Amino acid sequence: MKNTVIVDGRQIASQIQRKLSQEVTDNNIKLKLAVVLVGDNKVSARYVDRKVAFGQAIEVEVTVREFDSSIHEEELINEIERLTIDQSIGGVVVQLPLPTHLDTEKILSAIPASKDVDALGLEPMVESPVVEAVKEILDQYKVKVTDRQVVVVGAGRLVGRPLAKWFTEEGGAVELVTKSTDNLAGALALADIIVLGAGEPGLVKPDMIKEGAVLIDAATSEVAGRLAGDADPDCAKKCAVFTPVPGGVGPLTIAMLFKNFFDLVKRQS
């Protein structure tokens, strides 16, 4: 397709970064963001590094607590609870995914809503950062959601579930599928808007989507030492709007996480 819009998530994130930096100055924000990293998942470690770098750019200290993948569940919960009662910490993030022996739901519930910047608890006070990121992209490029066919691939807590819920609330005709769904190609072929979060590099090929589709690739996997999304990059040629990996949704999601941090810090004060 001619005139495909390739979303520059880094540029949009830098705009938000400048606004947040000014907020730090204007509101004299001194509280820290705590990030809990368990195990040695390389993609998770990269995202944590980017959160630290974003925090440095706006003069918000990000303290990273690293734990071995063998940590016991109760010990990790105790460590998280210590962070949540620390008056110098304004928000807490548990970097997902966690090792399989840990109950993710139980661990996330240890973070009170007032410090849950990722909005992963049962009653969050802010919107999911990835939802905010996708909203920003759709707003910037004037993509209509109401009455559009939306296919969300992947039912995870970080991408699939919150985005399927948001698109439904916005009036989209939403189908939530997984990479193993029968006739996945058939569902994608009818979609006006495709959101990917399966974590399966190259899952979606150009011949699986229609001309003029909006493709939001919010997945991140590592292939040969590089980040990759669920979409074959050649899908961009058929899309009206396409988010690349890296450089699309990811940087914007981190910016929105810090926006949530600021929103919660203001409420705490």
What can you tell me about this protein's structure?
- 38% of the residues lie in helices and 19% in strands.
- Strand 9 (221-223) and strand 10 form a beta hairpin.
- The chain is an alpha/beta fold and 269 residues long.
- It has eight helices and eleven strands.
- It starts with a strand and ends with a helix.
- The strands form three sheets. It has a six-stranded parallel β-sheet.
- It is globular, with a radius of gyration of 18 Å.
- The protein has two domains: 27-117, Leucine Dehydrogenase, chain A, domain 1 (Rossmann fold, 3-Layer(aba) Sandwich); 128-250, 3-Layer(aba) Sandwich (Rossmann fold).
- The mean pLDDT is 96.
- Helix 1 packs parallel to helix 8 and helix 5 (129-140) crosses helix 8.
Summarize the helices and strands and which ones pair or pack.
Blueprint: E1 5-6, H1 9-27, E2 32-38, H2 42-57, E3 62-67, H3 73-85, E4 89-94, H4 104-108, H5 129-140, E5 149-153, H6 160-169, E6 173-177, H7 184-189, E7 193-196, E8 213-217, E9 221-223, E10 226-228, E11 239-242, H8 249-268
Parallel strand pairs: 1-11, 2-3, 2-4, 5-6, 5-7, 7-8, 8-11
Antiparallel strand pairs: 9-10
Organism: Candidatus Vogelbacteria bacterium RIFOXYD1_FULL_46_19
EC number: 1.5.1.5, 3.5.4.9
Protein name: Bifunctional protein FolD
TL;DR?
Pathway: One-carbon metabolism; tetrahydrofolate interconversion. With 269 residues, this protein is α/β, with parallel strands linked by helices.
> How many angstroms does the end-to-end distance come to?
50 Å
CATH class of the largest domain: Alpha Beta
Q: How do the SSEs run, as a string of H and E?
A: EHEHEHEHHEHEHEEEEEH
CATH superfamily of the largest domain: NAD(P)-binding Rossmann-like Domain
Task: Name the structural class.
Answer: alpha/beta
**Which architecture of the largest domain per CATH?**
3-Layer(aba) Sandwich
- Order of strands, main sheet, comes to 1-11-8-7-5-6
Q: Radius of gyration, rounded?
A: 18 Å
Please tally the β strands and state the result.
11
Number of helices: 8
Low-confidence stretches: none
CATH topology of the largest domain: Rossmann fold
What fraction strand?
Answer: 15-25%
Residue-averaged pLDDT: 96
> Approximately how much helix is present in the residues?
25-40%
- Structurally, the number of domains stands at 2
* Major β-sheet annotation: 6 strands, parallel
Approximate shape: globular
InterPro entries: Aminoacid_DH-like_N_sf, NAD(P)-bd_dom_sf, THF_DH/CycHdrlase, THF_DH/CycHdrlase_cat_dom, THF_DH/CycHdrlase_NAD-bd_dom
Pathway: One-carbon metabolism; tetrahydrofolate interconversion
Protein name: Bifunctional protein FolD
Domain Tetrahydrofolate dehydrogenase/cyclohydrolase catalytic: 7-118
